């Protein structure tokens, strides 16, 4: 035989032998790994156990209509909005001065102006006033207005509080 050929096949034979031994050992390794049993879940997880009526069963009759708990009355709310970017005109002597203000619009069609040093302060003053009166902020949206290539946006704040008993 030619020794050169035998030398070329030796690395191939060795790699085949190592691969075969690895494949033979794989089932043994898998057998050594233990599977953790899963607990059944859901309504069909186990048998339903039914107890006989009588001994130990708590047999109570339904309470009369007068003793049944009444459903709670649904909560009624009142709403208002706060809008910024408005000005309040104030006459000072012979001139008129415009002061930044936030406009509070109550659900009852009642309006109120709250002043501030600038529009942000006016909105903060209005929200602080309403917060002290028990109003909660529900949401905020931007009101956009576009005209002839220019535009502006005004924040609108929506608030609510439990309706007061009249």
**Number of DSSP strand runs:** 5
Shape estimate? flat
Instruction: Determine the N-to-C terminus distance.
Output: 114 Å
One letter per element, helices H and strands E, the order comes to: HEEEHEE
Sketch the major β-sheet: 5 strands, antiparallel
Contiguous uncertain segments of 5+ residues: none
Percentage beta strand: 25-35%
Output the strand order for the largest sheet.
3-2-1-5-4
| Range of helix content | 25-40%
Radius of gyration: 40 Å
Structural class: alpha+beta
Mean pLDDT: 77
Q: Total number of helical segments?
A: 2
Helices and strands, with pairings:
Layout: H1 3-32, E1 77-92, E2 95-106, E3 111-115, H2 119-132, E4 136-147, E5 150-162
Antiparallel strand pairs: 1-2, 1-5, 2-3, 4-5
Structural account:
This protein has 166 residues and is an alpha+beta fold. The protein has a domain at 77-162. It is 27% helix and 35% strand. It has two helices and five strands. It has helices at residues 3-32, 119-132, and strands spanning 77-92, 95-106, 111-115, 136-147, 150-162. The protein has a five-stranded antiparallel β-sheet, with helices on one face. A hairpin with a 4-residue loop joins strand 2 and strand 3.
